[in-house]
Amino acid sequence: MENVRDPREHVNEEPRNDFFDVAIGFGGFFGIMFVVFAAAVIVKFIIS
Known about the structure:
This protein has 48 residues and is mainly α. The protein contains one helix and no strands.
């Protein structure tokens, strides 16, 4: 291991699909925010 900064030479480095990870994160966060939005709308209709 001459080049310590080369990520291809790291033993624990997993082959990951970064675009898929970002898409999953975006979708998950969007889902959580949608649930919060829906709950706020329901609470607003109950109050008024």
